[in-house]
């Protein structure tokens, strides 16, 4: 199709281990989509990987776009600029799986005219006391702000209208993007959708690496770093998300 309904954009840095399971899950969701599997393009944005991410993505039938600047906002924007779909959907490469009805739910939400975009929300691939406490601390923020994570979506014209993701930010660029979308939608009486019936399953690899309670100590450090520099450049945030050996 010249203009597919969905462009699914997957930013990826050294994700050869995780990418196949997400693409497999995406294939299941494509097959379940009422609009037909041909209504999709899948773009993997190789963000200067040093492993076989690009080769694996290509072998899985994905379109590969290369972005050399090591910043997830830059990778998301690179995919967004290359996309031709009516709706852009952004999802992290280590996501375990998408709900099979994800794209039908997005269509249904956008068809109401009440939403400028939104997100599916997530559940976790495993649970523990530490993970449950961390998750519970995040839930009130989601309720208060109306902003969620998981697979994030919006119309292509609205992505362009807000200028995509803020490439100055090395952290919380996804939050800033949703804030910009919400502001864009306000004059139209549109808000952000939370499609909690089709939650994605998120990876716990950061918790596997750093411990199930580590967020409780890391969040205060991240807030201090953001107060010093809202971009997160050259801080604990950058080391946490962008270390070369990941």
Can you walk me through this structure?
It is built from ten helices and nine strands. It has 246 residues and is of the alpha/beta class. It has one domain: Spore Coat Polysaccharide Biosynthesis Protein SpsA, Chain A (Alpha-Beta Complex), CATH 3.90.550. The strands form two sheets. It has a seven-stranded mixed beta sheet with strand order 3-2-1-4-7-5-8, with helices on both faces. The N and C termini lie far apart (36 Å). The mean pLDDT is 93.
Task: Record keyword descriptors for this entry.
246 residues; seven-stranded mixed beta sheet; alpha/beta; 17% strand; single chain; globular; two-stranded parallel sheet; Spore Coat Polysaccharide Biosynthesis Protein SpsA, Chain A
Please outline the helices and strands:
Blueprint: E1 6-12, H1 19-32, E2 40-46, H2 53-59, E3 63-66, H3 72-82, E4 87-90, H4 102-111, E5 115-119, E6 122-124, H5 129-145, E7 152-155, H6 156-161, H7 173-185, E8 191-194, E9 200-202, H8 205-210, H9 214-228, H10 236-242
């Amino acid at each position: 199709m010249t203009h597919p309904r969905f462009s699914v954009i997957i930013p990826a840095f050294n994700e050869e281990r995780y990418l196949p399971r997400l693409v497999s899950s995406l294939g299941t969701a494509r097959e379940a989509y009422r609009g037909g599997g041909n209504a999709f393009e899948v773009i993997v944005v190789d963000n200067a990987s040093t492993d076989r991410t690009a080769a694996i993505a290509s072998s899985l039938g994905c379109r590969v776009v290369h972005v050399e600047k090591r910043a997830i906002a830059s990778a998301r924007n690179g995919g967004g600029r290359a996309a031709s779909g009516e709706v852009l959907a952004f999802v992290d490469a280590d996501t375990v799986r998408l709900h099979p009805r994800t794209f039908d739910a997005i269509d249904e939400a956008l068809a109401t005219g009440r939403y400028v975009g939104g997100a599916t929300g997530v559940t976790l691939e495993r649970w523990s006391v530490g993970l449950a406490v961390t998750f519970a601390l995040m839930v009130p923020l989601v309720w208060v702000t109306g902003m969620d994570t998981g697979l994030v979506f919006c119309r292509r014209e609205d992505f362009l209208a807000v200028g995509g993701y803020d490439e100055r930010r090395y952290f919380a660029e996804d939050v800033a993007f949703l804030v910009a979308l919400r502001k864009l939608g306000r004059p139209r009486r549109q808000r952000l959708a939370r499609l909690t019936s089709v939650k994605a399953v998120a990876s716990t690899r950061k918790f596997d690496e750093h411990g199930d309670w580590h967020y409780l100590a890391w969040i205060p450090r991240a807030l201090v770093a953001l107060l010093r520099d809202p971009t997160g450049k050259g801080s604990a945030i950058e080391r946490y998300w962008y270390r070369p050996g990941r």
